[in-house]
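Suppose a classmate hands you a notebook page containing two proteins, each written out with its sequence and a corresponding row of structure tokens. How would you begin to make sense of it? This section walks through that situation. The first entry is reproduced here exactly as it would appear on such a page.
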Amino acid sequence: MWIPTEHEKYGVVLASFRGTVQHGLPLEIGDTVQILEKCEGWYRGFILKNPNVKGIFPSSYIHLKNAHVKNKGQFETVIPVEDSVITEMTSTLRDWGAMWKQLYVKNEGDLFHRLWHVMNEILDLRRQVLVGHLTHDRMRDVKQHITARLDWGNEQLCLDLVPRREFSMVDPDEISVTELYRLMEHRHRKKETPAPVSTHHLFVHMKSLMSANLGEELEVFFHIYDGRENKPLSERFFVKLNKSGLPKSPEKTERQCTLFVDLGSSDLRKDVYIVVHIIRIGRMGAGEKKNLCSVQYRRPFGCAVVSIADLLTADSKDDHLLKVYACNTESEWSQIHENIIKKANSRYNLSGSNTGLAVALQLLHGDIEQLRREYMVLFTRGVSITRKLGFSDVIMPGEMRNDLYVTLEKGEFEKGGKSVARNVEITVYVLDVDGQVLKGHVAAGAGEPGADEYHSLVLYHNNSPRWAEQIKLPIPVDMFRGSHVRFEFRHCSTKDKGEKKLFGYSFVPLMQEDGRTLPDGTHELIIHKCEENASLADCSRYLRLPFSKANLPSNNQTLKGTKESFWITSFLCSTKLTQNGDMLDLLKWRAHPERINDSLSKLKEIDGSEIVKFLQDTLDTLFGILDESSQRYGLKVFDSLVHIINLLQDSKFQHFKPVMDTYIESHFAGALSYRDLIKVLKWYVDRIVDAEHQDHIQQVLKASEYIFKYIIQSRRLFSLATGGQNEEEFRVCIHELFMSIRFFLSQESKGTSPVGQTQAVFLRAFPAVYGELLKIFTVREVAGFVRETLGSLPSVVQPDCPLDAVKLQCIAKTVESQLYINPESRCILLPVVLRVLQNHMQEQRDLVMCARILTSMLSLIKKEENGTAVNNPTEPVVSEEVELIVESLLGVLLRTILEISNRPQPAGPTMRLQFQDVTGEFVACLLALLRQMSDRHYQQLLQAFSSKDNLRDFLLQIFTVFRILIRPEMFPKDWTVMRLVTNNVIITTVLYLSEALRKNFLNDKFDFKVWDLYFYLSVIFINQPCLQLESFSPSKRKKTLEKYGDMRVMMGCEIFSMWQNLGEHKLNFIPAMIGPFLEVTLVPQPDLRNVMIPIFHDMMDWEQRRSGNFKQVEAKLIDKLDSLMSDGKGDETYRELFNSILLKKIERETWRESGISLIATVTRLMERLLDYRDCMKLGEVDGKKIGCTVSLLNFYKTELNKEEMYIRYIHKLYDLHLKAQNYTEASYTLLLYDELLEWSDRPLREFLNYPMQSEWQRKEFLHLTIVQNFDRGKCWENGIILCRELADQYESYYDYRNLSKMRMMEASLYDKIMDQQRLEPEFFRVGFYGKKFPFFLRNKEFVCRGHDYERLEAFQQRMLNEFPHAIAMQHVNQPDQTIYQADAQYLQIYAVTPIPESQDVLQRDGVPDNIKSFYKFNHIWRFRYDRPFHKGTKDKENEFKSLWVERTTLTLVQSLPGISRWFEVDKRELVEVSPLENAIEVIENKNLQLRTLITQCQSRQMQNINPLTMCLNGVIDAAVNGGLARYQEAFFVKDYIMNHPEDGEKIGRLRELMFEQAHILEYGLAVHEKFVPQDMRPLHKKLVDQFHLMKSSLGIQEFPGYVRASPVHFTNGSPRTCRNSVPNIISPDSGRGVARRSYPAVNRYSSSSLSSQASNEVSNITGQSESSDEVFNMQPSPSTSSLSSNHSASPNVTSSAPSSARGSPQMAEKHKHSRENTCLSPRERPVSAIFPNPLDPAQRVPPHQIGDATLPRSDPNLSAPDKGSAKSMRSQSPVSTSRSPQKTTVPPFTPSPTECQSTSLVSNSPVLSGSYSSGISSLSRCSVSEASGTELPASDHPPYPMPPPATLPNSISSSSDEPIRRENKTPPPYSVYERNNPRRPVPLPHSLSIPPQTDPPALPPKPHQLRTGSMKLEGTSDPRVPRPRPLPRKVSQL
């Protein structure tokens, strides 16, 4: 039977439990569990960290702990009853544990290890606390350590600041908000600025002395020395060392270590030093030989000095090695440290090169008691204390000290009949009153115990020795009287005996007859002569003698005249003895009554330290005098008392205040004194107004606290003694005193008058009196005194009057006093306090003090409330107080916060801190006040407003203040506790105020401003970072939810409720509130979303009612979605929720259709925005980013028509392309924006990175940028069109400077087309299948333009890297629906072949391959993929019979290249190609390839004949599949012809092609023979033999007649099919091969690469292979270095001459052969080897050109006549005669200047490097004649009919009058074709063509220079010339 547990509620798991039983709950050791039920040794419950999973577990596995239960029942929570520090430690360590592991993952090793150490330390400390064996003090220290480490870790991990009191966490609900703020502020400040420590201590540990010449024992003396004052600051620390230089007593650490205590902060400066004197004990001379003499002397050894300032910077743990110096002359020993400090090098030197003193030095800071706790080991091990000379900065009462310091300064001695000076040693004894030597009372210093005597240094042969040795005489106080010190002087002989002879003595008594001790200072003592055997034992004999020369009577000339003297300096540091006679006179007043007056007068001159020594005795004396003769001495005693009281205000003596308090409580006995004290005090107060000098009166008032203490205590003693007599009289006296005080306070003072200052002095002291008055008077009486006294102050105060601030300080102290804590007195005092506060806050004065007062007031209220029981009578009192404060201060408090927040912050850091403090404190006060307010208070507050306007102003103020409170900068970022409290108060208040809003500002009284502010506040509230619980750790989230719930949901419900109340006023907030509400719905809280999303339906509904549509709602939604989702808000769940909720809501609406459309649009936008955001994450690949941006950009353009967003994304896409170096795509992208602009003067605003400028200027800038990018992308044809457009503009404005530059730029682009190499890109079809792909890719197929040199394998790898989770599909068939719907990613990739649009350019003879290559790979809409398959049964003997090809044609939505490297497939077409058609294509393509290679070989474009060799070999040998014979077997047999009668024509065509191939092969072999190198002759011979075999196998003895009649025409004398005679079956749809594979460069980049690629592709079907791994070399071109692109190109590159000019077999001999070229392997080939060599004669200028005009060349290798002939040919005959047997079939054209290919032009053309080809088909040869402005001669009709002008792609007909520009295709969007600007034909005479000798034109500037130039010229252009006005078009002014 399971029964609920009563006491067993909480426990810790002792051992892990697997939970294998039914309903078992698995437990880990250390888990904490909450127990719900129990049953026979089993518990049922849950683990606290996962409360959702409940189960059973054995009770034996659990250690039970005491716990409190809150909310008993189903939702009970358990709080363990243990030390709160332990609880916090446990939860904190759990949180840290997870974060600690993350640090390792993030590779933050340093913090990881530090945190690990701290966590271990905390665990160790936790163990100590749990064991519970610690003392109270130790427990306190441990907790302090724990909390310090917890705070450190929280700070390092950016966790929240924990408010604490006495090391325990504080529950914010248990204390006032003001108190919480104070705690937080205190912790924050503590963290920021540690409090400066005023006391410092120096730890010294003597380690050893290292020296080579030791051998004697040493004494080392340390002391602290003030270099500025030249005096010691401390006594000496004394260490004895043995002969090895190590401490003599190593086991006694207190003899090696000391603490120089009580150093003030002023002592830590550069000129304070640690001085070390070292004395050796041994023979007189350091180097003397060892003799029998056993007498030892103390002799100087060395000195070391180190500055204390050096210790502040050095590492505290370092040992210091101090250099030891010795005197040059022994007589200067006493000054050696001064000389070292002054660096007087001549007076000292190093005592040895390797002599050093090893010492550990460390500065410790803080109170000595604190150090005892922190450095416990130090004190337990033993350390001696070395005191300061004199008292420390602060004297503590109870400190016992009685030390007399005597310094042996110097002596003057006579020779005494000796020939040399004496070696004098002094022996010091202390003798008591009986003449007995005091044992152990002579100390050389701290560290060693005191001795009976002290022996001084001996200075060798010196009659005026200076010792400067300090000794300490710690004589007990009771032995001082009658004691004296005796100094005996001995001469130390250096003879064999080494005896010491006494020759004199001096003495000094320690106390004078009158009880005064020996005064401090230097004393010159008399040296009395005596012999060794003289008896000094009887001291009474010499004590009668004079001891000091100062004390000698004037008649004693004999002693005064002696030269011998001895000087000492004495210094007494005693807490009991005095050297002051006046002090003694006062204390002995009864012995000399006549001196009382004098003594009282002199008291003020006595040093304070003397008075505090005898404080109690002095006070007894004063009150004794007062009791005996109050009439006579009353005033003087009062003044003396005031002096002593004010003395204790001094910081040095402030610790003696408790001594006086104790005296008053325990020792004071003046029961009658109160009368005299009151009388004198009143007398002083009454004189204030009239007195001229207020100083003394101010001193009296300053002491009023203690005067009242004496008055009250005296009265209490009197009452006690007399049973309360004269009570009424006393009360009357006090009332009269207060009347006098009130009178003097009520005087108005002008400015800083003396009375005003006196009033201020009294007010400062007044609050301290309250406590004393309460001892006799009731609380109400005292409160009455205070109220009347404060109320008597003048109400009107001068501005800047100091009294005002003092009055406020007085009120602050009053509020903080014991009196105010009592509720009874609070009722009386509160109105006074509130009145003063209100005045100050309204005038914005002394705000810091106001904040302090308010804080104290509100803290008390909270305390009161907490301390009350249920039926406590003070409850209504508290409520009334809150009511009073609200009434007086709420409004002014709000205004103050607004004022402060809007004020500019002051500059200084201290000022800024103060500024922040005051803001924070006022905010805390406001929150505390609002938290105290109940329903009744709110009702009263709202009813108190006299008018709606006042209420409106209040609401506006409070909402604005709340908005300020929500700001992130309001509190430091780790103050989450404070922020949560703030939010809790705000939401509570808003719930109260929203009711007032509904009642007062709806319907006809609607106020938009208040409602608007309310909604904005609510939105900001919900969006605060500190309320986003999702970002919290689980434990923090749980705590927050338990304490406050999810405040976002509460506020969301309130917004919804308020919105519903608005009715038709909702229209005021549409569309303004759409953005804010949308932001709220994006918060990832399901409940909040469910509440808020329906508001959009409401908005749509109201907007529909108002305007019949909801365009505004749609526009605003779309605008805001973009910015919000870019900031990281929103998710897929939100998209689905938004869609489903709104669709459900609009089901029944009349406008349902348009609503569904809007929701669908917004949902689709969200999909794209979410994809965009995911793609833009760091680390994503550029391809994904670009694709996503294109998708979004198109969506904005096509579906949303949002022009500004569209343009923004254009520029985002442009930047992505530039980053990825896709320059062509970047140009196309920017062109989108360019096309939106017109050539107009309309001004455009500043936008993105564009300045404010005219539309014309922006378009010009865009044009130049696009041209530059087209140039970099090697898409020069497109750049030319834009250059022309710009040139037209410049020309229309007569801006010839820029026109010239533009023409030169255009010319340079033409040069680059002819001279520079372009790579031919590969194209790949990619299918993205499966639901896991982003929306813009999902289940779509694209064609992608590959990167340079990128083959299928590389592309496939790149795609798989971009989508690492994708699976590559291994087939090319279309996938089925299961793949489409799969929750995975599938990639299908294969290569496709482009189908060029500009077939006429590609098929035209004489167009150079450089030009053709552009049209092959640019503006491609359609791509083809061929898949071979066998239909029917496959013939194993001849597979060609059944080999069909499945041809897929893909049409794209846009042409490539465009704004992206890939575009989506729009349409798929599938056709099947029969085996016969396939055979025709294969042979035709092979013929084209052969033809091309032969042409290249003849024109010497190939430096290597290998490609031709391999191709001929592949066709003739046909070793793999039997070559043409297989086709004959398949298609020329009777069966096939009978079965396929419809293929008769095709069979004929196949036969023609086979014969043509044979013809080409024969010609090819002839060419091959001419160029084949010697080593390949055998192969050539083999090929010729095989060719004859092949001919015979075809049955060809002679070529048929029709072949002979129309021999194959080769452009340059090589065989080529005549286009008229042989019908061309290569259509754009069927002219390409199948699968593209990776081929060697020789085949891939031949000039007729269309045909070569086709044949290569087909060869994959037939199995033929002509590939070779060899790559041939081309010479580096000297002229191309400036034009080389960043990308290397194919080695097989056409020359810059047109193909018709590439030489023929009939060429002159000097042009036939190129120089011998060595073959280079691809690795060795230089980059420049990819360019043709202009110096090669065969490549340069052929003597004859077929079918094209002769182009003049400026060739440095031509002789002068040659150049002339070239020029004459150019000018005389535009058409040259052909030297080939075949007549030309190409119409002649007049050359234009643009065709002039001068080397100098090339070298001077502007260089714009780039990569990637892309382009435009506008440069066919047909346009040349029109461009030059000449017409075709009438007689030169072409042999075949010319096509009509409309069929010429992008060309202009021969008529110069009517410029017509047509396109051969519908232009793709986003292409340059869209510009249809008509060009005016500008006729150019023949003479304008550039002659070879002319200087090259100047380089045009870069595009941005062009723009500025054009703008400059524009300003100076002729104003009469009207600019052409384009048609106006409505484009936003972007």
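The notebook's second entry, a different protein, reads as follows.
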Amino acid sequence: MVFCLWVSLVLQVFEIAEIVDQMSPWGMLRIPRPLIMIRAFRIYFRFELPRTRITNILKRSGEQIWSVSIFLLFFLLLYGILGVQMFGTFTYHCVTDDTQPGNVTWNNLAIPDTHCSRELEEGYQCPPGFKCMDLEDLGLSRQELGYSGFNEIGTSIFTVYEAASQEGWVFLMYRAIDSFPRWRSYFYFITLIFFLAWLVKNVFIAVIIETFAEIRVQFQQMWGSRSSTTSTATTQMFHEDAAGGWQLVAVDVNKPQGRAPACLQKMMRSSVFHMFILSMVAVDVIVAASNYYKGENFKRQYDEFYLAEVAFTVLFDLEALLKIWCLGFTGYISSSLHKFELLLVIGTTLHIYPDLYHSQFTYFQVLRVVRLIKISPALEDFVYKIFGPGKKLGSLVVFTASLLIVMSAISLQMFCFVEELDRFTTFPRAFMSMFQILTQEGWVDVMDQTLNAVGHMWAPVVAIYFILYHLFATLILLSLFVAVILDNLELDEDLKKLKQLKQSEANADTKEKLPLRLRIFEKFPNRPQMVKISKLPSDFTVPKIRESFMKQFIDRQQQDTSCLLRRLPSASSSSCDHSKRSAIEENKYIDQKLRKSVFSIRARNLLEKETAINKILRACTRQRMLSGSFEGQPAKERSILSVQHHIRQERRSLRHGSNSQRISRGKSLETLTQDHSNTVRYRNAQREDSEIKMIQEKKEQAEMKRKVQEEELRENHPYFDKPLFIVGREHRFRNFCRVVVRARFNASKTDPVTGAVKNTKYHQLYDLLGLVTYLDWVMIIVTICSCISMMFESPFRRVMHAPTLQIAEYVFVIFMSIELNLKIMADGLFFTPTAVIRDFGGVMDIFIYLVSLIFLCWMPQNVPAKSGAQLLMVLRCLRPLRIFKLVPQMRKVVRELFSGFKEIFLVSILLLTLMLVFASFGVQLFAGKLAKCNDPHIISREDCHGIFRINVSVSKNLNLKLRPGEKKPGFWVPRVWANPRNFNFDNVGNAMLALFEVLSLKGWVEVRDVIIHRVGPIHGIYIHVFVFLGCMIGLTLFVGVVIANFNENKGTALLTVDQRRWEDLKSRLKIAQPLHLPPRPDNDGFRAKMYDITQHPFFKRTIAVLVLAQSVLLSVKWDAADPVTVPLATMSVVFTFIFVLEWYSGQDYKHLNVGEVTMKIIAMSPSGFWQSRRNRYDLLVTSLGVIWVILHFALLNAYTYMMGACVIVFRFFSICGKHVTLKMLLLTVVVSMYKSFFIIVGMFLLLLCYAFAGVVLFGTVKYGENINRHANFSSAGKAITVLFRIVTGEDWNKIMHDCMVQPPFCTPDNSTYWKTDCGNYAGALMYFCSFYVIIAYIMLNLLVAIIVENFSLFYSTEEDQLLSYNDLRHFQIIWNMVDDKREGVIPTFRVKFLLRLLRGRLEVDLDKDKLLFKHMCYEMERLHNGGDVTFHDVLSMLSYRSVDIRKSLQLEELLAREQLEYTIEEEVAKQTIRMWLKKCLKRIRAKQQQSCSIIHSLRESQQQELSRFLNPPSIETTQPSEDMNAINQDNSAQPETSSQQQLLSPTLSDRGGYRQDSADTGKPQRKIGQWCLPSSPKPRSHPGSSVNLRSGGCLTVKTVGCKMNPMSDAASCGSEVKKWWTRQLTVESDESGEDLLDI
């Protein structure tokens, strides 16, 4: 910067020494000098944040802005290519027949200059005497033809950007319509405006808003809090109000008291005094607004307005002196409001001085209207909310002003030396030019004039300079104002939850009362319906009984019988007694029941179950914490599922107070602190739960009370719920009408067995069919057909004189009559719960029907202008609005838009106040001064007479120079002294209209030039200040308020950060789809290598570069007559073959696993490849490319070139899929289009209504400045194009003034409106202003709101996301592994495998979170009844489990989710207990079987031992055969009844051998006569014995005994064995009995 200053100083010395000319190009060396103001920004803002944090914020915002700029460049390149191929050059013009090449002048062109088509069947054909010629062939240069057009890709992109700025685009479209087919021009430019101007460019606003939200958090300390409304010198004290209540009032404790008496101080503080002053301010404003221009001869200094101003000035001066006397001067100036009042007092006092009257001091007089803001507290709060924290808005205003100064200085140094360019000769001119570009009004003219002046060489550089400045100023700077206003309207996070609860309470209160149209029955006496029992045998007269009571008696008869049969006291005291209650007692019972708690027995039982389950879970959690299972974990990223699961468990444990009652002795300080925090959290959780439960109870009570009230009215008033008080409630005809009215297509197909909803193939079509009832579908079709019929009407083909158009009118009225009669008979007209006229939609239906019926019956043949018949025809044009009533989504859009219209109304008041201030000032300064003679050479009014020759503007695009002796075309006109045609400041009404047009940024340049030229350059500040306030603050305030109002009505404005992230996550998950990608081939062969190549990022980038290279081939138009086209097409064929090879090698080997390549190409629809939509698109484009190559070499004509260009454009879209940023931003635009579909349809319906009305009002208006053969209201189609132009703001005010033409400038006709060419002044004013406000200010800003919402959905950072893109990608990969059929659904049992495969933040650790795993598995089984689950079902379950539902979910969704999780936990606990009991039973049965088998084996062994002792010693007992073991195994449980059985106990050596062998195999232990078997026994051999364990628990013992004397101690041994075995049998039988009792 120092170097630039030295260079500037040296250059200044050279200019002073006259070495260098002051107006030379060397002045461009001063360009960097204005950038020194950047240092002022650093001093002004004084950033207190660390430099790294500021760098990170700027880096992040810069990356986002760069990404959106790339996205904008993508669309500019796309439409640039389309423009080149669809249009090409606009060089064909209508010229005279005698035009010679190289000698084209202004007089050779048509007036006005008209483009033409060289084809006879399309475009515009020149009139006789003219011919269609190419001016470039006639010798005109590129500079003379202009720089806008579609000649090549560079010029085309330049032209597309101009059109996307909505400045001058309509004239480009008119040129294209004259030169090419009409449909091509409409398609290209309308889609360009919709996508580029309304969708893509608004993404910049979304970027700035998201970035500014983060910056606001970081710079909160610098900007200050926005919630403080009282100063620091005030305190709050209790004061008693007039009603006897107490309220907190802010009192300034440091405010000194004045010397005025107490009575005056009391009077000054009284509300009467304030209202008197404000009423005087209002009267002063009215008097000032009544001022008008009275003529030049009228003396203006001492008229009645001047005297009134003197009186009001004295009054307000006395008010200021009184306040100073009462408060003291120091106390008076301590208030900001008093400072403003003192400034007004001083300024208005100087203003009434005669020499200063009607001077710049008039601003102080008109600024008194600002004091009226104090009248409305809502308006005052709104103004403070917007402008209270003024440092943010003030900093932005200073930054904008500094930017204008810097850019004006740079532009001055760049273009001050350019000849024939007077826009940058001085700094004020440069400032006005750069300010004009900032407002976008006529910025194309500024750029075109500069381009023509600098020449063809420097034109591209200058164009890039202006485009970059325009891009920054209009897309970034204005978006900053919107971001600041939205941030000021944003609520604090701690208030959003409270507002949500209050809103829920308000909704509950509104649902409690019936509508007023139904409550009117309460004013009448009760007359319940009575019935007479005639078939009852009795000697007495039976009175009449209420019909409702008899119905209840009949319904409960069966219940009473069951009560008597059961004879249960509880039942007889509850249901039987309840059935015998009378109607009055029943009502009392219901009222008492409503006053009690809403928790029923079922709810209490559920609460007890939940308490028990939470107690068990809490104990388990406490045990795990005490055991230290949570400690010593590896330092890795913990699963968010596990984290949220433990958070919920801890919250539920706190809710039931388990941790709040554990304070005991001997605890450390840390433990006590933790217990205290747990107690606080427990109390907060209890308070939050009580608030939620209270709201839930209130809602339930409100619904019950509403139902009770309705039932009481239905019972006590016989005419209640009777259509037209005639048709009965249950009449057959009414039931038939109900069936007809409510019949609709059932879109959901359910399984009759499981009850699950089936996923049909065409579910979207089915949902569309089930959107409305069959009757509404019929009426929608009839209404559309009627609107189509109305489009054929015109002033020259009227419905009164066209029988074919009358048929559609009759059909509409007949069908609507049938519809209304059916709905009235089914639901009633007005005094029924579901009446036809229950909202504004019903009123509109009846109004449209009556208007159509009256018009059909009347059918006037003559319709005078401005008559009742014409008004009836205008009201008939509201017929398309019927679709708003018939389609529920359209009604929802209207309700969300207009339900909270308070803020929009307040903004309108602020803008009207701003306009009134500047209008009053303009009347007092410019009234009568703007009139001038139309001859610019005449200055005085006395000389303004006679005629003069005026030149005609032939063309705005051509830059022809007059040749010596040549004159421009013109004609002679009379001189007239008059105001400008479209505006004046002679009275407040005209001034308000002019400022309203200026507020829309249309026509303000003309107002500025007229004021500067006719009043003085200093007064140009007036219009610049108004445009700055109106554009930068007023219109951006309107945009911000519309967005905030829409979000508030939709429910997103009150969402906290966590709730908004959750809503974004749900929307993101709906869009997510399975990958449908097969895994990599297992082997390392050719297919695997090709798979690796196609998956490499370098391969994708190479393909993207090839796509761009092929798209560059469309830089010039492919014309069959142009020799350049053939090589370009040949190169495109080469690229096509490359893409074909890429598709075969990349896509087939990438997406297919089995089968030969030839079979895949022949089949063309393999399942793995066909599942991906992107692959289908690539396949389609590749197939079209192959077809084009064949046709190209076969035909080689214009159609094949067109097809080749289309194929390249289609392939150009595939770049979005290869670039992550472009893909996300394109998804933002696509989803915004999908969500704004009904808003777009609503805009079209409004536009259609205004088009029909415009044909009636202005169909025959004469052509004027902007009403011409392209733009007029002669038919509905042309009216739609004109209104679409007005939506973009393209000269809408000039079209309005053309439609205001009045005699003597037109020919009136009082008989019929179609015979006059005059306009309608009042009708045009209301028509155009209302249309522009509704469409441009409200409806278009809704698109901005939707784009802002969806931008945060797709383009949030990893820190802001609950589930990152990596988590979603990982889940898609795992799903792709589990879903082997690529159908998008899997069986429920596979969810377990899917959850086990998840890793990272979605991982479920079965060792730690086994209970969570059970919960998730059971949730999928419960919600889907064991059927198939989809990709989104599992992803939705994981998303719910991965967030803190208390913070992220809203009230209704939170209640439903918590109830579901409680139920799941209860059912899982039941299943766990049930499975545990089953395992216990199974274990007990296994023990019984084991004991029985052991007893059987012991008996076998004892029998063998007995036989061994009884037989000779040489005999050896061997192991039984397998067959015998099998028999013994089968009969192990049966008692042995053999008479030869003998019981014998094993010897000591045998037991020891058995134990030794069993110890070797599995170490069985004997407990009270029971053998414990090893878990996995295996046969082994031992010298003494061997034990073989087989299936079934059979045990076989092989013993080799010792030889001993059988005769010694035989008797004693036998007796001991018998005693021991008897004891063993006793013990075994006792244990078996205990086991059976345990079971």
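A careful reader of the second entry would note: The longest helix spans residues 1451-1510.
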